[in-house]
Amino acid sequence: MNRFSRKAMQSWASLGPRFLPFADVATDDLPLSRLLRLSLFQVSVGMALVLLVGTLNRVMIVELTVPASLVGVMIALPIVFAPFRALIGFRSDVHSSALGWRRVPFIWRGTMLQFGGLAIMPFALLVLGGQGHANSAPVWIGYLGAATAFLLVGAGLHMVQTVGLALATDLAPVEDQPKVVGLMYVMLLAGMIFSALVFGLALENFSPGRLVQVIQASAVATVVLNVLALWKMEARHSRPGAVRGEARAETPEFAASWEKLINGGQAKRRLMVVGLGTLGFGMADVLLEPYGGQVLALSVADTTKLTAILAFGSLLGFAWASRVLGRGFDPLMMAGYGALVGVPGFLAICLAAPLGWPFLFVGGTALIGFGAGLFGHGTLTATMQLAPREQIGLALGTWGAVQATTAGVGIAFGSMMRDIILALPIGSWFGAATPYISVYALEILFLLAALAVIAPLLRGRATPGLSAS
Asked: How far apart are CA 20 and CA 345, in angstroms?
């Protein structure tokens, strides 16, 4: 390396911890390059989420003319597996495979589940929509195939994300664990942004064949990304006391570990906050793109990019929250600010239709993403800070189970509410936007309810100033 290149690298390294998000989590034993490679599993999860919540729901509702309530139920099917995230996290805490790994076997199984679901999905959707040669196939095959595909993808991404986050915290020093998990979620959002942009370009000229190619490419990319993320990442016999017989003797029961976690530090109220806030931010996920397409006349490519805008807003929220929380700010207060920011975001989306301003819709979407980033980082950091060290996987799994379950319930309920209101006499009071605005108004109420539940948790808690370095 010449003198100029060496000096440039030194200057970049000195600027990194100050200006680059999460650059200060890197250590000699855990360099940033290794952390970024590990975070590739979050990119694969983000890609799957964009497909499920972003691209496919618009295509199924608008292009394939599948009822929105059925689409909402299909997209919500992965929540059947979501409550098991706590058990998966616990099992990965105490598991010891024949090769001496704890986390890797679970991540690999999750990867295979994702791949299988994505392999089935495009053909099931074609049957469900009666497209091409599939128009003569029995409709029950489409229902069964789509349900199986969504269940497999959901089970896989829940398993990969829960255990992947636990592995990340295993590798990081205790004081840097919240920052490392924050980096993992930023990579999730970055993966969603990138995937949404790529899918938007690939589906610019939509056709059923192009949709099949996009989903199949996503299946292959999932395996490649997760293998790269796992390669030489977890040491064999990484658990203290790696003798298998001894490890079994010391393995706690799930019920006892769960009781210890749930009864400490007002955990139930914190989980209630997670559920209410997730309902507030999540019910709109399946309706944003159809709203843009049916009410504001946006194209498939334009509405797919909305997912990127939502994820970019969340990325900014997560990065800003990480910087502020690193100075000692109260994470529950940060979650409250996130819920508060979401309220004007939904108001802007509601006003976009009667005013005919698509840019207001885009701005409201970005604001909702920013609020969701603040809320998610705040609740996640609070969960990690109050969890016993030996229960990191269980704590992350519990947070993820509540978050994913309420998100799925919100998606299904929001979609069904949209169809029900559309069928009622009030369904045309504000034109085509009426059922959508009704759902967004309910989300505002959920966010206000989350603020009401957070308030007692903040009483008597001192919030450090933001002047700390």
From this structure: 27
